[in-house]
Amino acid sequence: MSRLDTGSATLLGPGDDAAVVRAADGRVVASTDVLVEGRHFRRDWCGPADVGHRAAAANLADIAAMGATPTALLVAFCLPANLDIAWAEGLADGLTAEAALCGAAVVGGDMSSSPTLTVSVTALGDLGGREPVRRGGAQPGDLLALSGRVGYAAAGYTILSRGFRTPKILVEAYRRPVVRYAAGPEAARLGATSMIDVSDGLLQDVGHLATASLVGIDIRSDAFEVPDQMRDAATALGVDPYQWLLAGGEDHPLAATFPAGTPLPEGWTVIGSVHDGAGVTVDRKPWTGAVGWDHFR
Predict the structure, then answer these.
(1) DSSP state of 264
(2) 154 and 272 both lie in a single domain
(3) Which residues form a coiled coil (predicted)?
(4) Residues 219, 156 within the same domain
(5) Whether this model's pTM surpasses 0.90
(6) Which regions of the chain are under pLDDT 50?
(7) Annotated binding site for ATP
(8) Do residue 14 and residue 41 come from a single domain?
(9) Binding annotation for substrate
């Protein structure tokens, strides 16, 4: 328990039957996610701290996508009996470090033996008196904006799956997401009409906004800058880099819609627009490639 820092919202941390977390708003935002070895991560690709960072980020980004500030994590860890204790400690370090990036803390959880290494995380958050930003509020005429990078983790996954370990910037993006957690509450304050964490692919997740809002959304391909490392890797591997940018997941940027004319601060990039209709298009045309991660494919 000494490995787990205590966040400012934690009134009572690990050590009792349950933790006590401050909920000044009177409402608690909650989200949960699970990582299964062989399905969501491989130990020969990621160190234990990397897995901790990834598990925490997947949940903390969901809290931010509601316009809330993350406050606490609960972690359930199922592990094989022969797992090295140092691996479990590294996982705890990664979870703690990622949570600390947004002022949250691991406040409790559970452990069990299992033939399959599994990490399940539940995140809690505080709305700070604001209404949650849901998926269903986008209106025709709104702008679609993105905060955070996209395509890097997908490129890193492809590189690792082909047996390579470079470029480092792409491989490390797969191992540890870089998430702008503060962008969620920032978007809420700016009047975002809808928002989502892009975890399964930009086209797929923006499609959830379009479906929930009963609108169509068009994404502009020229809004994305393809970095040199990504372009070079795509050429070497025979991949269209826009497949990574538009359909790759696990970078966890936030996509949000805003009323036209909203002054967006640094860190937000306008990538499209909302219109009457249905579904998601790219440059006003249907996208013919994959749109994102399918959990049951």
Answers:
(1) P
(2) yes
(3) none
(4) yes
(5) yes
(6) 1, 296
(7) 109-110, 135, 199
(8) yes
(9) 40, 250, 293
